[in-house]
Amino acid sequence: MHGKIKNRVIMFFVVFELLAYLLIQIFYNLTYSDQLLQQKSVEIKRLFAVSAMQITRISQQMEDKATALAISGEQLYRQQQRNPQTLEALQQEAGIILLSQFSDFTLALGGGIWFEPFRLLPEQRLFGPYFFWQDQQPIVSWELNSDEYNYPSQDWYTVANAEALDQPDQSLHPLVWSDPYFDEAGTFSMMITVDALMRDENGDYLGMATVDWALSNLNQVLQNHRPTPLTQSYLIHRASDTVVNLVNDDKSFQRTDSFYWASQLAELQSMQQARQSLLTAPDGESYLMFHQRAGHEFDLISLTPLSELKKEINRFAVLVASLGGFIALAFMILMFWLIRFVFSPFDKVLKLINQSIQMPEHNQVDVKINPINYNEDNEFTPIVQALNRVYLQIDNYLQQITRNNQQLERSRADYLQLNEQLEEKVTIRTRELEAKHQAMTESLQRLKDAQQQMVEQEKHASLGKLVAGVAHEINTPLGVSVTAITTLEHKVKNIIDKYNDGSLRKKDFQQFCDELVQVSDIVTANLERAALLVQSFKQVAVDQSSEQCRSIELGDYLDQVIRSLAPKLKHSPHQLIFTPPSEPVQLYVAPGAVAQVITNIVDNALAHAFQQTPHGKITLSISQHGDKAKIIIADNGAGMDKDTLRQLYEPFFTTARNTGGSGLGMHLVYNLVHQQLKGTIKCKSAVGKGTEYTILLPLDVRTQKTDA
């Protein structure tokens, strides 16, 4: 047995190590490798963002320097207008301006101030000093201020003027970036220029200030931030749609439409934020593609082969797998020797235990137990001592078992006798329980009859309240009509008296006719109002007293029910708002049940919901959903807690027992909806958040199964 235990323990650790190793590899392949790839992409994205930020910073510095140079040129012009100077003095002043602007700005290849012909000096056609670096020394040159070069006719000057002058804001210094080009005049290098326009105090055009940026600096920035040797970076000038860090042999720039990723460029350029995506090249190679805006003029694109990133991840995976396998093998060898060492004392103790118990083959009752002789002092010593104490107790237990068996036989006879007596008692108790059950059944039936009677009384009480309210409401239009008729009768007698004594004038008769028309209108309007109330009450009252089903248009019928509730709402500070459905909802139901449900819910809201609300509002809306009509009744009152909501439909439960509440109103609503209307009702409420009832009714109760 102990050998099996050791083998099981060894097999457990071997299987555990193999499963752990396999799970680690599966986890690495399914999760960790993807996480490493994502982490690598995050690192590339950060490095890519650094390049974009550096290019953005340099381009912003170029724009700031061009603006500052334009402001200095405008100041030179205004100074010349206030205090005219000679050409030599102006040239010296312009040189000082250029040296002060560029001597500490080595990022620029050069720059200049270019005035329109005859603007600075009437007798001087051109005035265009230019600054550039030569052998790291600042040089101010006038070589481009010549009729041979004629800078006002150069493309960089005319194009910038046309674009800048089209800008509507004349109060600032418009900035225009030129397309990348090869400078054949002085620097003989690939560059791009940012131009800032100069204006006089009247906003008239003076010329422009320019700052040149050598594109070799851009290439250096991109090379310094390559995350992998095979990463390809492209800086795109958005206006000219050219790649400025790639130059053809004819000293021209490559256009973006010559690259396979050009199809995604338009979509990427429409996004302001950085974008990461996967791109498949025509040769089938997959690339991790990043796109980000770099300043106002440039887009930066980086393409890193996924295969190169996966090679690094795979190298790490091989290292992890090798190290994990070596650790697992070492651990299994260690566990094998450790188990053998741990189980050696156990083997010896188990052998002594087997020798201490002797059981004959034919008489298993006659068991001989000898004390264990164990002389070593280790962790098994307490166990052996405990076993010896157990062995001493076993003999006592065997003797006690014998005595207990004899006593058990005697107890068995007593048990049989008690069982017979118990069966007789159970028979008597059964008869008594049957009699009590019959009495309880009869009491329950009487209770149900009383409950049904009280429900019917609640229905008739509700109808009585409706009758009283409508009668009171009808009194008003009828009283107005009687008053108007009485007034008319007095007017008629007066006009007859004047006619009889010959004092009737045309003016009196005309006034009588006008008053007759007014009284007639008043009587007609009030009688029509009374007739409408009687008609609505008649239909609702007949429906509530009858359970006969008929077809109704739910919106029109509820409108009649609401008119019958008008007397009750009229003398209340609260209001009931009914939202008719957009399309008719046709029902075949017992209309009285529908009217009773709406009336009881409204009564319940008026009685309980608005005790702390001076101007409450009840909303009623209906709609059709498939073969169901949906009625929602909500109020903005005090709401109910969870305990009240749980007992809402229970009979005789009320929170207004002291004010005459019967506790049957909502119980009647629940029974009418579920039993007579074959629908469902749900209530949603919370303290301080009002109450909402949602009722779903079938469009035709005849299609519903009758409850058993």
From TrEMBL:
Residues 469-701 form the Histidine kinase domain. It comes from the Bacteria. GO terms for molecular function: ATP binding. Keywords: ATP-binding, Coiled coil, Membrane, Nucleotide-binding, Transmembrane, Transmembrane helix. SUPFAM superfamilies: ATPase domain of HSP90 chaperone/DNA topoisomerase II/histidine kinase, Homodimeric domain of signal transducing histidine kinase. Residues 394-460 form a coiled coil. This is histidine kinase.
